[in-house]
Specification:
heterodimer, A: 518 residues, mainly alpha, MetI-like fold, 2 domains, 23 helices, 75% helix, B: 337 residues, alpha/beta, D-Maltodextrin-Binding Protein, domain 2, six-stranded mixed sheet, 16% strand, globular
Chain lengths: 518, 337
C-alpha cells in the first residue's frame, strides 16, 4: 500500500501532464477526422517553407551559439541581446513593422518589395523568428558537450580536416536540435504566410485548419484531424533528431563531465559573428521596431488605446510563467534520466505538442473544461493553465540539457549536510538551478504576454489580454493604436527582463551566468 | 523549514490575490461577445441608463464564432454582436442560438432583413462588398460584379479563412456568377486573372493605397472609412448592392431575468439614443445604414451615401449552410499553382 502511494506520489507530474495536456488535447485530437483530406500542395508548401526557414536560421543561430559557448568571444552579449529582442517581438508585430516600411509608395515597386511579398519574404521572416530558437537550443546542447572533443583533437594531434570532421560530427546533434525546433515552429505558423503570401497564393497546412475554424459553426473535427497530421510530421522530425542524437551524441552527463574551456576565436570567426549578430538584430528587431515607431507616430482614430489590457496580461504572464516552470521542473527532475524510452517520450511529446497550433489547443481546452468532470472554462485559472501547457513543450527542450548537467550527487551531498528540507530547497536546490530557471521563466513570461490564439478563445470576460487588444485594433484598421500598445508591451517586458536579470545576477553571483542554460 | 512554509504561504497569498483580481465580476449583468467597434460605448451607455452592467468581450469575428461554437450548449455569453446573417444562420442551424423577437419600428430595409424565425436581430446594414478605387481609375472602374472578370486592373480582397466579413463577399461573387455551384467558374476566372487575397481589411486597403492593386473589394464600412481618410480614393457601390447586416444573437435556452435584460439591451441599441452612440463613437463599424424608421444617418459631412436604390438580400440560410464546402473549395482554388 505504502509502495503504491509512494509511486503515486512520485508520479504526480504524470497526473499534471495528463490533466493539462493529454486530457484536453488528446481528447480533442482523437475526436478529429484523422483521414481528413489534406491538399498535397499545402503539405508540400508547408514542408518547403519550414525546411527553408530551418536551413536559413540554422547557420546564424548556430554560429552565435557556438561562438558564445565554445569561444571567448566579445560579441556574446550582443548575440544574447539580439536573440532575446528577436524572440520578444511577436510575429504579428514583426510583420506589421516590416509592412509599414515596405508597403509604402516609395518602396513597394522595388525588387526588395517583390522579394518581401513572396516566398523569399515569408522564409526570411520565419527564419528570423527561428534564429532565437536555434540559438537557445544549440547553446543548451553545446554547453552539455563538455571538453572531451577538444581534448581528443589536441591529444592525438589530428589534421585540420580530420579535426573539422570530428567537430562536425560532434556538433551534429546540437545542429539537429536547433533545426528541428525551427522547423516545427515554422510548420505551424500561419500569420506570416497569410500576410505576405497574398500575391503568390501560398497554400500551407495551417490555412486549412483556420479555414475549417472560420466556417459557422466551426468544423472542429476537421481542424483536429489536420492538426493531427501536423503533429505526425513533427513526430517524424522528432524521430530524425532522436536518431541523430543517439547516433552522434557527445555529451557525457555525469560526475566526469567537465565544461569546455573556450578558446580564442580566430579574427575572421569573430568578425563573421559580429556581422551575423548585427544583421539579425537589424532585420529581426531594429528595422521592424522602426516601422512600428513610424506607425505609432501616426494620427490615432476614434477609440482610446486600451492600456488596461497590459496590466492584465502581465499578471497572466506572471502566473503562467510560474506554473510553466513548476511543470517543466517536475517533468525534468522526475523522469528517469537514463531511460531511452523516457528520452524518446519527452522528445516526441514536446515536438508533437509544439506542432499543434495555439488555436487548436485553445479550442481543445474549451471542449475539455466547459463540460465533463472539471469545469473551469471562463476562469483566469484555465487561461493560465493553457498558457503553461502551450509553452511547456518548448521549455522542456531548452531546459533539459542545462538542468541535467546539475549532477545528482550535489543533491545527495546537500541531503547529508542540510537535513532541513526547506533550507535545502531555498539555499541549495533553487540557487543551483537559478540560471536556467530565471531564463526559462522570462522566456515563458514574454511568450505569454504576446500570446494570441489561446487568449482569444479562453480569456475570461472583462480581462482582455494584450495580444487580443492589439489584434482588435488592427482588425478595426487602427494600426497606430495597435503599434503604440505593442511598443509599450515590448518596452515593459524588455525592461522587466533587464531588471530581473540584473537583480538576479547580483543575488545569485557565483551560481548564475548570463545566457542560456547557465 | 519555517522559511519554506513562510515562503509558501506568501506565494500562495500572492497567487490567490492575483487570481482574485483577474476573476470575472460575478454580477448579474450581461456578457456580450462582440466584433463591433462601437459595442463598448453602447454597453456603457446602456449600463448607465438601465443599471444592468454589461461585460464586453471584444473579439475578431472568426474568434467570436469559434468561441460560441466551442462553448456549444453550455454558453457563457448572453448576447453576441457581429456582421453577417449567414454566420447567424449557421449558428441557428447548429441549435446554438435561440429566438429573439424585437418589436421595433423597422423601415422597409429592416423588414426585409428580419428573419422569419427570429433567430437574429438585424441592427444595421452595411454592404457585403464595395469597390474602392483610386480617383484616377474611377471612370473606367467596373460598375457591376460581373464586370470584374473583364476589367483590366488588379483586384484584391480579404481572405475568407481569416477575415470574418470576407465570406459574404465570396458569396456575393458566387451569386453574381450564377449561384452555387455555377458561380465557381466566375470566381475561378477572377483568381486566374491575378486577384490577390490579403489577410484582412487593413492589408487589402494598404495594398490599394500604395498601388499594389487597383481595386479593393471590401465591406462597405471599411471602404467608406478608408475613403474618408484618403481623399484620393472613391467608393463604388456595385450593382446589385448586397446587404451585410450586423446582427445580435442570443444563446439557445436563455430565459428569465437575463432574457428580459437582453431584450432591453437590444431595444436600447436600436433606439435613437443608442444609435447616436453607435454612429458617433465607433470607428469603421459606425458607417452603417439604420434599419428603423425613427433613426437616420447624421446630417452634414456623412461619408455614407443614401441607401442604394436596389439592395439584394441574400438567402442567409442557403449561403450559411454552404459555408464549409465553399470555404474548402476556395482554399483549394486559392492554393492551386
Amino acid at each position: 500500500m505504502h509502495a503504491t502511494l509512494g509511486a503515486l506520489g512520485r508520479a504526480w507530474w504524470l497526473a499534471l501532464i495528463g490533466l493539462t495536456v493529454v486530457y484536453p488535447l488528446g481528447g480533442f485530437l482523437l475526436r478529429g477526422r484523422i483521414t481528413e483530406s489534406v491538399d498535397p500542395t499545402a503539405v508540400r508548401n508547408s514542408l518547403m517553407i519550414a525546411t527553408a526557414a530551418a536551413v536559413v536560421a540554422l547557420p546564424g543561430g548556430f554560429l552565435l551559439a557556438w561562438l558564445s559557448e565554445r569561444r571567448r568571444w566579445g560579441g556574446r552579449g550582443l548575440a544574447e541581446i539580439t536573440c532575446w529582442m528577436v524572440f520578444l517581438l511577436p510575429s504579428y508585430l514583426l510583420t506589421l513593422g516590416w509592412l509599414t516600411l515596405v508597403d509604402r509608395p516609395q518602396t513597394v515597386h522595388t525588387d526588395a518589395a517583390r522579394f518581401f511579398f513572396g516566398l523569399g519574404g515569408i522564409v526570411a521572416l520565419l527564419a528570423l523568428k527561428g534564429v532565437p530558437f536555434a540559438y537557445f537550443a544549440a547553446r543548451a546542447t553545446l554547453r552539455a558537450m563538455g571538453a572531451e572533443w577538444d581534448e581528443v583533437v589536441s591529444v592525438f594531434g589530428l589534421s585540420r580536416v580530420r579535426a573539422a570532421g570530428i567537430a562536425a560530427r560532434a556538433l551534429l546533434p546540437a545542429a539537429a536540435a536547433s533545426a528541428v525546433v525551427v522547423f516545427v515552429e515554422s510548420l505551424q505558423e500561419f500569420g506570416i504566410p497569410a500576410t505576405l503570401g497574398a500575391r503568390i497564393h501560398l497554400h500551407v497546412m495551417p490555412y486549412d485548419i483556420y479555414a475549417r475554424l472560420a466556417t459557422t459553426p466551426a468544423d472542429f473535427s476537421g481542424a483536429a484531424g489536420l492538426s493531427m497530421q501536423l503533429a505526425v510530421i513533427a513526430v517524424a522530425a522528432a524521430l530524425v533528431h532522436l536518431w541523430l542524437h543517439l547516433r552522434y551524441t557527445t555529451a557525457l552527463v555525469g560526475a566526469r563531465h567537465r565544461g569546455a574551456t573556450p578558446g580564442v576565436p580566430a579574427r575572421w570567426e569573430s568578425a563573421v559573428g559580429w556581422l551575423c549578430a548585427a544583421v539579425i538584430l537589424g532585420l529581426g528587431f531594429v528595422i521592424p521596431l522602426a516601422g512600428l515607431c513610424l506607425q505609432a507616430l501616426g494620427p490615432i482614430a476614434g477609440k482610446a488605446v486600451p492600456w488596461a489590457s497590459m496590466a492584465d496580461s502581465l499578471l497572466y504572464a506572471l502566473l503562467g510563467s510560474g506554473l510553466t516552470l513548476a511543470i517543466v521542473l517536475a517533468i525534468l527532475q522526475r523522469r528517469p534520466r537514463s531511460s531511452p524510452l523516457a528520452a524518446m517520450g519527452v522528445e516526441v511529446f514536446s515536438l508533437a505538442s509544439m506542432a499543434v497550433p495555439g488555436v487548436v489547443l485553445g479550442a481543445a481546452y474549451v471542449f475539455a473544461f466547459n463540460r465533463g468532470p472539471i469545469v473551469l472554462y471562463g476562469t483566469p485559472l484555465l487561461l493560465v493553465v493553457a498558457y503553461a501547457s502551450a509553452i511547456v513543450p518548448l521549455l522542456i527542450r531548452l531546459l533539459k540539457a542545462p538542468l541535467e548537467q546539475i549532477h545528482g550527487s550535489l543533491g545527495e551531498a546537500a541531503a547529508i549536510h542540510v537535513p532541513d528540507p526547506g533550507r535545502r530547497l531555498l539555499d541549495i536546490t533553487l540557487p543551483l538551478r537559478a540560471g536556467p530557471l530565471l531564463w526559462g521563466a522570462f522566456m515563458a513570461f514574454a511568450t505569454i504576454v504576446f500570446e494570441l490564439p489561446i487568449s482569444e478563445l479562453l480569456a475570461p470576460p472583462g480581462r482582455t489580454p494584450l495580444a487580443v487588444s492589439i489584434v482588435n485594433l488592427m482588425q478595426g484598421m487602427n494600426d497606430t493604436a495597435a503599434a503604440r500598445l505593442g511598443l509599450a508591451g515590448l518596452l515593459v517586458v524588455g525592461g522587466l527582463g533587464a531588471g530581473l536579470m540584473s537583480v538576479a545576477s547580483r543575488r545569485f553571483a557565483g551560481s548564475l551566468h548570463t545566457g542560456v542554460g547557465a | 523549514m519555517r522559511r519554506l512554509i513562510l515562503s509558501g504561504v506568501l506565494l500562495a497569498a500572492l497567487v490567490g490575490a492575483a487570481f482574485w483580481y483577474l476573476a470575472p465580476d460575478s454580477n448579474s449583468g450581461l456578457i456580450l461577445y462582440s466584433a463591433e467597434d462601437y459595442s463598448t460605448a453602447a454597453a456603457h451607455a446602456f449600463a448607465a441608463r438601465s443599471g444592468v452592467p454589461v461585460t464586453v468581450v471584444s473579439l475578431s469575428t472568426g474568434a467570436l464564432l469559434a468561441r460560441i461554437a466551442a462553448e456549444g450548449n453550455r454558453p457563457h455569453w448572453n448576447l453576441a454582436w457581429f456582421d453577417g446573417a449567414e454566420s447567424a444562420a449557421g449558428l441557428a442551424a447548429a441549435h446554438l442560438t435561440g429566438v429573439v423577437h424585437a418589436d421595433l419600428d423597422w423601415n422597409r430595409l429592416g423588414r426585409r432583413l428580419v428573419p422569419a424565425d427570429g433567430h437574429w436581430v438585424p441592427t444595421g446594414m452595411t454592404l457585403a462588398g464595395v469597390f474602392v478605387v483610386p480617383e484616377a481609375r474611377y471612370s473606367g472602374a467596373p460598375r457591376t460584379w460581373r464586370a470584374l472578370a473583364s476589367w483590366h486592373g488588379r483586384i484584391g480582397m480579404n481572405n475568407p479563412a481569416i477575415s470574418g466579413p470576407a465570406f459574404p463577399i465570396l458569396a456575393a461573387l458566387l451569386e453574381a456568377g450564377g449561384g452555387w455551384p455555377a458561380g465557381k467558374s466566375f470566381v475561378r476566372t477572377l483568381v486566374h486573372n491575378g486577384m490577390r487575397i490579403y489577410a484582412k481589411n487593413s492589408n487589402t486597403l494598404a495594398a490599394l493605397d500604395v498601388g499594389n492593386i487597383d481595386l479593393a473589394l471590401v465591406q462597405s464600412s471599411a471602404g467608406f472609412a478608408f475613403a474618408r481618410a484618403h481623399p484620393g480614393f472613391r467608393v463604388l457601390v456595385p450593382d446589385p448592392a448586397v446587404a451585410l447586416p450586423s446582427v445580435i444573437v442570443v444563446p439557445h435556452g436563455l430565459s428569465g431575468r437575463r432574457r428580459t435584460a437582453v431584450l432591453r439591451f437590444v431595444r436600447y441599441v436600436m433606439s435613437p439614443g443608442g444609435q447616436a452612440i453607435r454612429m458617433g463613437q465607433g470607428e469603421a463599424d459606425s458607417l452603417y445604414w439604420p434599419l428603423t424608421r425613427s433613426v437616420s444617418r447624421p446630417r452634414g459631412d456623412d461619408p455614407l451615401p443614401p441607401v442604394p436604390a436596389a439592395v439584394t438580400v441574400a438567402d442567409a440560410r442557403n449561403w450559411g449552410r454552404r459555408q464549409a464546402v465553399m470555404g474548402r473549395w476556395f482554399s483549394a482554388l486559392w492554393g492551386a499553382p
